[in-house]
Design a protein that fits this description.
The complex is a heterodimer of chains A (196) and B (242). By secondary structure, chain A is α/β, with parallel strands linked by helices. Chain A has eight helices and seven strands, in the order ααβααβββαβααββα. Chain B has two domains: 8-75, Ubiquitin-like (UB roll) (Roll), CATH 3.10.20.740; 97-241, Alpha-Beta Plaits (2-Layer Sandwich), CATH 3.30.70. The chains are: A alpha/beta (196), B alpha+beta (242). The complex binds iron/sulfur cluster (2 copies) and FE2/S2 (inorganic) cluster. Residues 146-152, 176, 199-200, 202, 204-205 of chain B line the site of one iron/sulfur cluster. FE2/S2 (inorganic) cluster binds next to loops of chain B.
């Protein structure tokens, strides 16, 4: 697992704002990948970004476990046991961990199931919904265990920064990242700061 | 005789007798964050967003009468930090999922969060379970977003003379109720023409079949931050067609 893999990389002590290339990891937990789409929405500025950072674990690289990183971007909240493991792996490997998007920040759309009983939800979806014949609730051991309630990620680990928005715009993500890479305090003013 | 004035963040701001710090500031186009205050209603001082420091003491700007020579601190890091914390508590106490809220872009709570750069809820979410009331033909009530400002209570009682709303319970159990035996809005004489339908700072009292009409980017606080709309804050939404 990630923890054993990393001693050599952990030796690379990189200060944010340094000229050295930084390592960036991204993951989507209980999110819709909309925030990742917004990251791609920085368009040709992606070229500038890859000049300045190397991607570690991310859907863009298909690396499965996070190595020692400078910056981690997390999209989505926590809705199952696997989300918790991934989030903890990111926290222990990323110097700066950033919650990206409404779901990471306050649970977002997935958290709107929180006032419903999870067992009843599963029954209704897999057993009692109209058109279902001989359905059964999936129980393959490969499937991560759903949590009773969906939580924002700051309730599980310490988060250094938050970029709200559903999703935050490419411009907002770019502004935040470049502030951070250049050693400024990241700031989102009007109209980049929005919750929807 | 010269007009009395307060010193608001070092700036002389005149007032007339009987005006509060909030009244004087708003008349001078200076923004003091507020939620339970509405220029057309008697202040009640419950949300504490308008907390300022007057002659060194924390006070509510919406209730404290201005006095000549009073030194008032308003837009300072200390006060804005405290206000941000109040906002964060309001956000986690309710269910504020802005992306699916009809009021988004026109909401004072949200606009204040932008103004004060609230980037996260900080506290643990309560995720309360509050049923919506969709019984009324014209109006939907989503109690999940109520911040207990009592503006609808005051408007319905003092202007409409109907007393449709009131607060019930204490402390964390305090909540908004509808004054009908059934508790349903449909069983009152409430109508969209009521003043009470047009004072809510957040997304509780909503006109049915009209949500999301204005595109993102064109809504009230998309266009201009709340701090620059002081003289228009009595109207709760720019697209208010009533
Ligand atoms: S009432 Fe305001 S803060 Fe709450 S969900 Fe709606 S837009 Fe967001
Ligand atoms: S419904 Fe709106 S106006 Fe009434 S108390 Fe709640 S937040 Fe205030
Ligand atoms: S606006 Fe003054 S206490 Fe609410």
């Amino acid at each position: 697992m990630g923890a054993e893999r990393e001693p050599e990389r952990g030796a690379e002590r990189v200060v944010v704002g340094d000229k050295r290339k930084l390592r960036l990891a991204t993951a989507s937990l209980a999110g819709c990948f909309g925030c990742h789409m917004s990251l791609l929405d920085i368009d040709e500025r992606l070229f500038e970004l890859v000049e300045r950072v190397d991607f570690d674990r991310s859907p863009l690289t298909d690396i499965k476990h996070c190595g020692a990183c400078d910056i981690g971007l997390i999209e989505g909240g926590i809705c199952n046991a696997e989300n918790v493991h991934v989030l903890r792996e990111f926290r222990s490997h990323c110097k700066v961990l950033i919650a990206v998007g409404a779901c990471a920040v306050n649970g977002g759309l997935p958290a709107q199931r929180n006032h419903l009983d999870l067992g009843q939800c599963l029954q209704e979806i897999y057993l009692t919904a109209p058109d279902i014949v001989g359905g059964k609730i999936p129980n393959d051991p490969e499937l991560p265990l759903p949590l009773d309630k969906v939580h924002p990620i700051h309730e599980i680990v310490r988060i250094d920064y938050f970029i709200p928005g559903c999703p935050p715009s490419g411009d907002a993500i770019w502004k935040f990242l470049t502030d951070l890479l250049d050693g400024r305090t990241p700031r989102l003013g009007h109209p980049l700061l929005h919750f929807d | 005789m010269t007009q009395p004035s307060i010193l608001l963040d070092g700036l002389p701001v005149p007032f007339v007798d009987g005006q509060t710090i909030m009244d004087a500031a708003m008349a001078a186009d200076i923004f003091i964050p507020h939620l339970c205050h509405h220029p057309e209603f008697k202040p009640q001082g419950s949300c504490k967003l308008c907390t300022v420091k007057a002659n060194g003491r924390y006070v509510s700007a919406c209730t404290l009468p201005a006095r000549d020579g009073m030194e008032v601190e308003n837009n300072s890091p200390d006060l804005n930090d405290k206000r941000r914390t109040l906002l964060q508590m309001l956000f986690v106490e309710g269910n504020h999922f802005c992306p699916s809220c009809e009021k988004s872009g026109n909401c004072m709570l949200q606009a204040l969060a932008y103004e004060l750069e609230m980037l996260s809820p900080h506290f643990d979410q309560f995720y309360p379970n509050r049923a919506v009331d969709a019984s009324h033909p014209e109006v939907l009530l989503d109690f999940n977003r109520c911040i207990l400002c009592e503006l609808c209570v005051r408007a319905s009682r003092d202007v409409d003379r109907k007393s449709v709303f009131s607060l019930s319970g204490r402390g964390i159990d305090k909540h908004l109720i509808v004054n009908a035996e059934s508790g349903r809005l449909a069983d009152t004489d409430f109508s969209w023409a009521d003043k009470a339908a047009h004072v809510c700072p957040v997304g509780v009292i909503l006109k049915k079949r009209s949500g999301f009409a204005v595109p993102i980017g064109k809504r009230r606080y998309d266009v201009e931050p709340i701090g620059m709309q002081v003289e228009r804050l009595a109207a709760r939404s720019a697209d208010e067609e009533s």
